[in-house]
Structures are given as C-alpha cells and as structure tokens.
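pls ignore typos typing on phone
guanosine-5'-diphosphate + seq
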Amino acid sequence: PAPVLAVVGRPNVGKSTLINRILGRREAVVEDVPGVTRDRVSYSAEWNGRPLTLVDTGGWDIDAKGMASRIAEQAEVAVEMADAVVFVVDATTGPTATDEHVVRMLRRAGKPVVLAANKVDDERGELAAAELWSLGLGEPHPVSAMHGRGVADLLDVLVDVL
Ligand code: GDP
Ligand code: MG
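k done
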C-alpha cells in the first residue's frame, strides 16, 4: 500500500493548495474564508514513480470548543493513521499559538514531520521562512503552493523520510 502523508496545519495556511499542486490538478477544495466544515479527504499521488496517499485535514468546525482544540483533534486522527506528516505553516504570518499547539501534538505522535513554510512566493519570503526554525521541528522548507516554488524539493525530502 502507498505510504500515507497527513497534511496538517491551521486553516488558511494553504494545505489544500499544496495538495492540488502535488496532484497537478484542482481536487482539494481551496477556501478563501477559513472555518468551513469539511471531512478529512485522501488523494492518490505519485512522486518519482512512488505512490503516495495524501490526506487533507481541512475539516474544522468553527462552533466547537474553540479553534485550537478542534484543529488539533482533526489533525491528530490523520496523524495517527499517517506514516509521515507535512506540517504546513504560513511563513508570512510566522508561528502562531495554534501552530505551537499543533507542534506539541506532533511531538506526542512521534511520526516523522516535514515542515513546509508556505506562501514564500518569492525570495523575499525566505527570511520569514527561516524564522520557523523556532518551532523546533528542524529545517523549514520554503514553498509556494500557489506558484509551485520549492514543492519538488519538499517532495524529495518527504519521500526520504518514508
Ligand atoms: P487550507 O485551509 O490550509 O487548506 O488553505 P487553502 O489551500 O484553502 O488556502 C487558503 C488561502 O491561501 C487561499 O486563498 C489560497 O489561494 C492562499 N494560498 C495558498 N497557498 C499560497 C501560496 O503559496 N502563496 C499565496 N500567496 N497564497 C496562498
Ligand atoms: Mg483546505
């Protein structure tokens, strides 16, 4: 069976956009407005001839309990089922309290994590991406899910941790 990659992170960081970029088609639903309830969805992808299953964790219920706990709960189920995790952070906003919350969950889960610093649309964003070293998850990989910048390098790193 194809290894499973869970794509986690808070709403609006570009998880679904990244998945569409990897798939090469618009299949995951991209939301301009955060907070729309959605189930976890799996997609079959491939990189360098290796099959991968990508799990989008867009599911999020804005009414329930408070944002941080809900996002973590969603992400946690996907992470439990995954062989590795892509943690997507918005490099243009820097790490938020919610990002830190997800980091703690990821530490407990103990799965290999690759940190994607998204929305680095040009080289000016690289500096902001480097600030994500502070999350303590190792090297932040700058990508622009929207334009494709850095995504091939990210995928190379991902298949290496599998
Ligand atoms: P998700 O909630 O994490 O799945 O985020 P989405 O994929 O739905 O994207 C949220 C918003 O961020 C959308 O308006 C996207 O177009 C935008 N976005 C996603 N990736 C990028 C990127 O690499 N650069 C920029 N500038 N915007 C992005
Ligand atoms: Mg989404």
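The first strand starts at residue 4 and ends at 8. The chain has five helices and six strands. more later
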